[in-house]
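Worked problem 6 (solution included).
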Amino acid sequence: MKIALIKGLIFSLLTLFVIACKKNDRYAHKEIMRVNLPDVSSLDPAFARSLDNVNATKQLFDGLVELDKDLNIVPSIAKNWEILDSGRVYRFFLNDSISFHPSKSLFGKDMIRYVKASDFVFSLNRLIDQQLLSPGKWVMNVVDRKPNGKLKVFALDDHTLEFHLNKPFPPFLGILSMQYCSVIPPEAFDLEDYEFMDHPIGTGPFKFKYWKKNNKLILLKHQNYFQRNKAGKKLPFLDALSVSFIKDQEVVFLNFLKDELDLISGLKGTYKDELLTDQGALKGVYDDRLQFLKFPYLNTEYIGFQLDSSSLEPPFYLGRLSLRKAICFAIDKEKMLQYLRNSIGTAASQGFIPQGLSAFKYNASYGYTYNLDSANYYLQAFLEETALSLPNMDPIILGTTSEYLDICEYIQHQLTELGLSVKVEVNPPATNNELIAFGKLPSFRKSWIADYPNAENYLSLFLSKNFSPSGPNYTHFSSETYDQLYDRALVVESDSIRDQIYYTMDSMIMAQAAVMPLFYDQQVHFLSNAISGFSVNPMSHMMLKYAKKTDLEIGKAAQ
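Solution. The predicted structure is:
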């Protein structure tokens, strides 16, 4: 009994010693979340093109509006707004108590500067400046221009901002939620020798502290951040974010297992087979060690078909609808997801619009599910139309990059079983994109990740005016009726009627089999048990202002 008592006392003393040591550690009492964003290339919101750049700048900058976890447009710096002149004028009323991150060098001894409507006028005109070469300048295309080329964006007073559009555009609020449209202080560009890239100043939940490129980025809590959670508590909860830039996914996974990272995202590494079953569930051995989170992701992975036969050297088989339909019915997408992606994603048996958008409607009759009888029927129809025989056909070229070779080889195998010969052509990413843009690949693997949460963003890919290489219509799908429906949807005031138009347009794309949607993606995150409140929306934007971190060792000792 005494021995047990002594052992218990020793254990308690050791526990207290560990806790005391941690408390004496300079950072022990700080809630620091450690994440890895390997592709961060800029902290300037005007260059927030890649997902990693978006997720980095999202912690530093705010815009007029933002997306919540369900893709609803909610207030941010604008507390409310109104839409006037049949959708051509947007007027925003700004919160008058929002300040930029404190900076003595920019704002003087008081260090505090409140956001004004004129700051947005400056930020958005900077975005379209030809000398800046921002990849996001296109987001202001729908805004009308003054004779001098500046945007028709007006600061009516310090807290009222007005946009004049060149046409009604219902997705405009979604556009304004993009990081490109963040507000920045003009003083950062007026002050000589101030390098905005090295000392970015925004209004976001975290403020810049330190960045050594390709090594470490440190962001600290913005004590005067204006937002609160639903319970009325000030955000953010974390004291700091520590961002690493490790590109080797196996190293990322090992660091996560060693508790050197609190979060890993995606399935790029081979660790997916270590963590997940074929059915997409977390393996039992990890149940008590980490959290597995799975969310919708607005990304449609697809195979595109070049419909403009005149742009390619003969033979060009895929100009025939019957062959495209044969291919669409021949692919078992459910099995593909199970074998290649551990069942992460939803097989695309409907159209191009992904799950997660209101215009998506479950209707298998206008999509393509695996059906060998239908595949053989359309293949025979193709052979009769063309008087060809399978042995005399040249291979169908399918272009891809090495990252998606497994998916294309799976398609190659399934079409070989149908009797079709397929040659998978693997190209460097830049070369592959160029070949697709200039119509040099009869078929190609591609994906479309939403820029903003609206079906219009997906359907605009198939407009006649957007033919590649000047636009994203890589298939050269063309329909006057389709183009007219698109224009009609822009002036319809009812969301439900607009969604019905979008559904009709989607079904037209599928009727012509211009693309073969493979799957609607899902995002996966593996999270330390120390983290709670982690929030992410279907755009895969991480809202780390809601996250909390608990010291597990202290928590265990308390138990």
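Discussion: DSSP finds 17 helices and 19 strands in the chain.
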